Amino acid sequence: MTALVRYSLSMLVRSQGYIAPFVLFGSAVVVLTTNDFGPIAGTYSACALIQFVCMLWFTVAIVNTEDRTQRSLTVVAAGGQRRVLVANVLAATVVCVGLSAVGLVYPIYAGTHDVAPADLAVGALAQLTCGFAGTAAGLLCSRLVIPKAGYAVFASLAAIGVMTMVRPVPPVGPVMALLSSATAPDRMLGPVAAMGALSVVMLVASVLVAELIVRQQD
Amino acid sequence: MPSMGEGRAGTVELRNVTKRYAGSAPVLDGVNLTVAPGDVVGVVGANGCGKSTLLRIMVGLSTPTAGTVTGRPAVVGYVPEKLPGHGRVSARAYLTHLGRIRGLSGRQAAGRARELLDRLSLVGGAGTSLRRLSKGNAQKVALAQALLVPPGLLVLDEPWSGLDATAHEVLAELVKEVAAAGGAVVFTDHREAVVAANASAVHHIAGGRLTPVARDRGASTAQVELTPGGPGVKWPHWPSLPGVVDATVGDRSVALTVLDPYCDELLFQAIRNGWSVAGVRR
C-alpha cells in the first residue's frame, strides 16, 4: 500500500495537478487569516471551509492523473480496483494533513489570537473533518465516476454549494457554524469529533460507491 | 525478488462468460476458455469483436454479466493495446513504481526495469518520459511492466502492433520464456497468421462466440531455402522471425517453413541482408 500511495503522490506532483488547488489554499489562508484577531476558532472555520474545497480539487487531481488505460495497469499490478482507490484516498489524506498543519499554524503566526490547547484540537479536527469530506466528494467527482469533464465540474460546484451553503448538511456546514459561534472550544470538541467520525464514514462510503460505479462501467 | 515460481496457479477457466453492456447485443456470449500453465493461447478476430473485453475479464478489470472466471493466479501481467503516452514520468521511474507496487524493492524494480528495457531496445533510453515515446516504444514499456515480476498469467492485447522487427523477436522469446517457466499466456491479434505463428492454441472470436481453430486453418505455409551470399552474412535466430513456423539450420543453408503472409517480407529482408534464395515452394 505504501508503494501505491507513493505512486499516487508522485503522479500528482509530475502532473502538476497540485499547483492550482495549492495556490488557492495558500492564497485563501493568507487573505482570510493574516492580521486577523479575536477567537481563533472563527479563523479556523474559514480554514476548514478552504480545506474542503481544496481537498475536493486535490482528490480529483490525484485520481485524474491516470487515464483509463494507465489506471488499468495500476489496478492489475495492485491486485484490485479497491486497493488503488484506497491508495488514492490515503494520498489525499497525506495532502490533507499537510494542509491542516499549515491551516493550524499560519493563523497563529500571522494574526493576534489567544490560543489554548483546546483551540488547536478543535482547529485540527475541524480541518481534517472538512478535508475528509472534500476527499469523499472529490472521489465521486473524479473521472472514474463522472467521465465527462464538464459534468464533473458542475458536480463539483454543486457539491461545494450544497455542503457549504446548506448549513444543516453535515459535516462542513455544522462544523463551520459551530466554530463561528461563541461556544467554548472545549465544548466544541465532542460535536466536531462526531462530525469527524461522520466524515470518515463518508470517505469509506465514497470508496465503495466509486468502486461499484467503476465495476458497472466496465 | 519473487522467484520464477511465485504467482503460479492452476488452470485459468472461463465458464459461460457473457458480457453485455446496457442497450446493446452481448459482446461476449457464453464464452468457454481453458488456459493451462505453459499454454500460449492466441485469440484472433476482427476489430471490435470483443477481444479486448475478453482479456479485461481474464485479468479482472471487467466483471462478466454472467458466467465465472476461476484460477486466476496472484501475479497477472497485462499489456493493453496501447500505453497512453501523455505521462510526464520517465519510463524508468514508471517501471520502478510499478515494480514496487508488485512487491519488489526500489533497487530490484529499477534493476529489472533496466534489464527488460535493454532487452527490448527502448529507443531514447529509460529516462525518456512516457509522453515522448512512440507507439512502439510505449508498447515496450507496457510489455516491461507486465514482466517485472514473472507472471502466472500474461495477457497481451495486440502486442505485435507497432513493434519493430527486433522487438518482434524479443517479444516472441519473452512469451516462450513465460510459458516455459509455467506461466499461461493469452494474446490477441486481428491477423490470423500472427496468432498462428506464435500460439500453441488458437481461438477465433466473432459474434461474441469463441471457437477453437484447427492449428493449420488459414495458415498455409511456404518452404523456403536460403543460402548465405558471402562469409560476412549475419545468421539471425530464424525460429524467432515473424511467420517462421519451423527452421532447419544447416552448415551452408537454412530451410524454413514460413506462413504465407510473411513469406514475401521474409524473402525481401533475407535478400537485403545478403542471403540468396535457393528455392521457394508454396
UniProtKB/TrEMBL annotation, chain A:
Source domain of life: Bacteria
TM regions (residue ranges): 12-34, 40-63, 84-109, 121-142, 149-169, 189-214
Keywords noted in UniProt: Membrane, Transmembrane, Transmembrane helix
Protein's UniProt name: ABC transporter
Originating species: Luedemannella flava
